[in-house]
Amino acid sequence: MNARRVVRLLPLLLLAVLAACRTSPTTQGTTNAAASAAPDGAQQWTVDPAASHIWLQLRADGALARLGHTHVIVAQQLQGQVWLRAPLEQSRVELDIPAAALLVDDPGERARAGVGFSEPLDDDARSGTREHMLGERQLDAAHYPAISLRSHAIRQQGALTTIEFQVQLRDHQSLLSVPVQWQHSGGELRATGNVEFNQTDLGLEPYSALLGALRVADRIAARFEIVARRAP
Question: Which of 60, 72, 76, 95 shows the smallest number of beta carbons within 10 Å?
Answer without folding.
Answer: 76
